[in-house]
Amino acid sequence: MAAVAVIGAGSWGTALALLLCRNGHQVRLWGHDPAHIAALCQDLENKAFLPNFPLPPTLEPTADLTATVAGVDAVLVVVPSQFFATTIKQLVAVLPADMGIAWATKGFDPDSGRLLHELVQTVGGERDLGVLSGPSFATEVARGLPTAVTVAASRPAYAEYLATLFHSDRFRAYRHDDLIGVQVGGAAKNVLAIATGIADGLGFGANTRSALITRGLAELIRLGMVLGAKRETFMGLAGLGDLVLTCTDNQSRNRRLGLALAQGQSLAQALAAIGQEVEGVVTVRAVCKLAALHKIDMPIAQQVQAVLYEGRTPQAATQLLLERTGKVELD
Ligand SMILES: NC(=O)c1ccc[n+]([C@@H]2O[C@H](COP(=O)([O-])OP(=O)(O)OC[C@H]3O[C@@H](n4cnc5c(N)ncnc54)[C@H](O)[C@@H]3O)[C@@H](O)[C@H]2O)c1
Ligand SMILES: O=P(O)(O)OC[C@H](O)CO
């Protein structure tokens, strides 16, 4: 059994920490906010981000990063992408130089637009890198509902090590070698879930939803290919799997944001009502910048950006998508 540091005490970090404890591991769960961690220690529950799931004695909440990683066998970072760079910088300062870093964050580095493995390489030097991604709502994992994810790593043995930590009869962790594709899938699907939420919120039907998911997948593949991903990765859990989950179920915060925008709420109102991280709001900027840089067509992502940041109404954005000239289906 291993000692694991989970860095990020939000809903996903807490759900993965609970899973690791159920798998028999000893877990330290780090949060940046000492008051929140004090509440976790007192309530033995993460009331702010994952209520109604008792924390077992093998899960130790802490706000001390040095103490969190002391003597652990593995480290998993699960902070939202906007805090990822700062957290990694703090982490590498207290982590042995040969210790691998894995993450379950879904997004790009907002400042540089780079994928997170590039940032970790730059800040953390040569070491094992791994990512856990795929269709997985925190609450369902905490409830022990059957879930399957992808674990990709820079080295097959590290992917196998990480997958073994998480794998159980309720949480199947499939190994993968496409670090880039798995990250692009997990990040970009959030933008497409906002688009699908908008369409559903405007009252469009099942045909429209399916069209957006499928044409969204084409955009995601285009982006992945220019960044060096393998095309087939997008047919797996971290691609189509997560895209379908997030675009079709109202547990998704990104989808709910789209629904709220279509119903006339402002971005600020919608975010306040959701009260948690909505990664697509940050990710859409990186995605559109990358699309422009690599000269690839990502019309759905561009319309999401226009709705979020350029004052375009959901109705106008939808109309602009529909008015595009016909084209061949496959690139
Ligand atoms: N919630 C899910 O179901 C789920 C599932 C899969 C992946 N993810 C991904 O996991 C990542 C984390 O999301 P979440 O759902 O746990 O977020 P959350 O909204 O539940 O929690 C917010 C998190 O942000 C952290 N935070 C806030 N300010 C911070 C700061 N200044 N420095 C460091 N951390 C700070 C909080 O401690 C908390 O961990 C995201 O990339 C998300 O896409 C979430
Ligand atoms: O609630 P969302 O939209 O952030 O999605 C959560 C997970 O990424 C689903 O796999």
TrEMBL record:
Its EC number is 1.1.1.94. Pfam families: NAD_Gly3P_dh_C (PF07479), NAD_Gly3P_dh_N (PF01210). Sn-glycerol 3-phosphate binds at residues 106, 134, 136, 189, 242, 252-254. It comes from the Bacteria. Keywords: Cytoplasm, Lipid biosynthesis, Lipid metabolism, NAD, NADP, Nucleotide-binding, Oxidoreductase, Phospholipid biosynthesis, Phospholipid metabolism. Catalyzes the reduction of the glycolytic intermediate dihydroxyacetone phosphate (DHAP) to sn-glycerol 3-phosphate (G3P), the key precursor for phospholipid synthesis. This is Glycerol-3-phosphate dehydrogenase [NAD(P)+]. It comes from Thiospirillum jenense. The gene is gpsA.
